[in-house]
Batch of 4 targets.
Target 1
Amino acid sequence: MAKQIFINLPVKDLQKSVDFYSALGFTNNPQFSDDTGKCMVWSENIFVMLLTHDKFSGFASKPVADSRSQLSALFSLAVESPDEMNRIMSSGLNAGGTEPVEMRDHGFMEERTIEDFDGHTWEIFFMDMSKFPSEK
């Protein structure tokens, strides 16, 4: 089996979250989805499991945090161009996401931030390694 990553996120409104992540470009894998959780696919090896709070709590030994008021993680998705980054952001914002900070340009990397309905924070970024500062 290939190395893969499954990010599990607790969500309050499963369908609203599926619609949001679909707008970002994720697709649903019905094979690993039911009424309590949806498997959203970013790539061959990257998956986001959207789980109702009850379902998520069944896997956790701590209370579910309120990610709308506290940040526990930043998730980052690399894309192939600034245009793709901007298209994904526009789609996500149109689907109800929020952009808590302005776009940042680090010279070799441009990044934008979007939050879903539950406050889960995603960095969408494009990196141009030819502009990466070299050691002198």
Note: The mean pLDDT is 94.
Target 2
Amino acid sequence: MATLTEQMSAGSARIRVDVIGKQVPEHVLESMEFLNYRLAAVAVDPKVTLGEPDLVWKLDAPALSVTWDGRTMHFEGAWAVGPIQKALISLLTLKLEDNGLHPFHSAAVRYRDRTVLLLGGESNHGKSMSQIEACRRGGQLISTETTVIDDTGVAVLGSKTVFIKNREKGTERADKAAPERGAQIFFGDTMPTWTEYADPSNVDVVLVPAIDGNFDPSLKEMIPYEREYQSLHSVQNYLHLNELLVSGWPMPLVDTVERRQSRAAFLGKFCVRPYYMIRAANPQALMDEADKVLR
């Protein structure tokens, strides 16, 4: 029996993975593309420093199973890589929270000398196209899919991949259009380019975009409850608690009452900054609305 032990990190968060079987792979994942798209700055550490595993995967077990004992995720059987990736994201998210860091399902730009968070929220229709349009207008890229924000409201990490082009087995999505098709519709065959804004920065304004060809332009400031409601959708997204890993096996309940209350308390402080719901038929009209409050 062989064991592969590997450690992964995202910022200050670290997890250890043990893979056990007669034949183990060289690495837990062949590619880190999805983790870096879905989270931010995930890397395989050169050395293992953690004394206990956060995920144990027994490859040769006769049947699929996944359990959570409050400390470690246990996978048994010949799982596809896709569900393992989701579990790794959830475990890294827990570690990020332990370090006072909160991944938001969002894009972010440095635009008109402000850091603007484009929140995915409940519907998640328009953050990427709005980010591209803001950058086309001179904004700098902070993040594309995920923005990691600390307890004080400072954006400290961000994913940089706009579109995920390869999904591992077990994460295929028939409902997702060709990754760059939306951008081609709105921006033509030549994708706008941009520079990155690398410094940590306080989030000044939060926009919740909604793009639909039937929408008239609309800009409304959100009340406190709406702000926290939409933001909770965004941060809860990384625990995958509403997802089926494989038929018969949902993501284990890795959350706790204490964590949920702590998360809500953080959002109560974070959501005091300006929040706006913006609707439009396309990203150009949406950013025209945003410019009314960002000039």
Note: The longest strand covers residues 101-111.
Target 3
Amino acid sequence: MDNAIETAGLASQAGTSIRIALATMSVCCILYPLFLLGVGHTLTPYSAEGSLVYDDQGDIAGSELLAQGFSSPGYFWPRPSAAAYNAAAAGGSNLSPASPELRNRARVQIARFGVAGGGLIPADLVTASGSGLDPHITLAAAKYQADRVASARGLAVETVTKLLEERARRPGGALTPEPLINVLLVNMELDRLGK
């Protein structure tokens, strides 16, 4: 008799546990995300849709929030990416500052940029960001590349520099120590110049 009561009690507890788990999963995995999605689409529809940027033909050119691997001399190059600009693999390299691999990767980047532009290469052109997908470079890093971009596009350096200064933003306000350039947006603006 005691075994039957224990079995019935366990079955009742198991049923209660399953109902609680299903209710919790419904709230946490369905209702709450749908609520947040609705709030996001209502308050900030642009960012809720991925901050997508469209070209002049109406095609998606990318996201304002994710770096792309530009490598043509006529484009500004973003920060290096430990994730090869793959958003599905976002993340830093987790290499120690004393790592020979990190040092070698920096040497490759330094060789890629050469010694033009005053000799010292801005750090953000040699080091990857924490996510590997940072869409911004500093204004100094963009100006460092201005000669190469202007030459490849047949533009005056002053024209490219003026474009950079017009596009420079401090997205964090006073928390952003120096102006930043969104690489995708400035490269699209260069394409609109038609050169």
Note: The longest helix spans residues 2-43.
Target 4
Amino acid sequence: MNIAVLGCSGAMGGFFTRYFLRKGNKVIGIDPARARLRNKLFRYAGMDYDSIESVDAALVAVPMESTLDTIKTAMMHMKKGRVIIEISSLKKFLHDQLKMLEVGSFTIVSLHPLFGQSLKSPNDGTIAITPFKDKKSEVRTANMLFPDFRFRLISPSKHDEAMSLVISLTHAINVAYAKMLCSTKKPELLGLITPIAGTQFVISRAVLSQSPRLIAQLQCRNKYTAKTLNFFAKVVEEIADKARKGQEQDIEREIASLKDTSQDLLSYEAVYKAELWRIIHTMSKKLYNE
């Protein structure tokens, strides 16, 4: 296949460019920043959108605020009936905007890769797919283009609601954790850190390595995030209030209850077997030993 990657020099754009090349596809890269890939199947085209006229599919991997305009531009230059894949982190607002366009015979495939560009094997990657117009056709197209990945089908609204928990809340917790550590400024802190605290420290560093703009957008542009963060803040305040009052037994009972409930969601053994957990645990042990 001939595939264009719009935003080929970015993190996820670069990841999927390399993925398509490994699958034997010809790839045209569009990006103001030059992509320095040495592969006979790859052609960097700068911002020459005329070069994508005959591609079979175009993957849009640009900053979230540019996604809609980039899709519009792609549709102006591609032949009718081709595939456009977008991989933005929020879906409901984008879907609403796309439905106001005349997409005609284009197949819009709306995906959210639930992993970063450092993913070693596609078999370890999960991609959320949020149907836009024709669920069966879009799922079939996604499986054809990305045969190595696992897919999870979810509506745009349910997707964004889930992202307020698994991304926005996770980011907020770890930004707050990092801020507290930085405000402490006590050199003896690392000498006393436990493996679990070290794991949290590593996760915070991982969150901070991501784009500050993207983190801020996921906090502010997801309509479910404020409600999620407010609920979390309420839970933290309830614990703080019990701590102030010395209500140890109340805290103990709540934790015991949560242990039973959380086992229904995901067992400790399942988490421990995950590759990411092993990596983080190893890193935290190294930090602890230092």
Note: The longest helix spans residues 156-184.
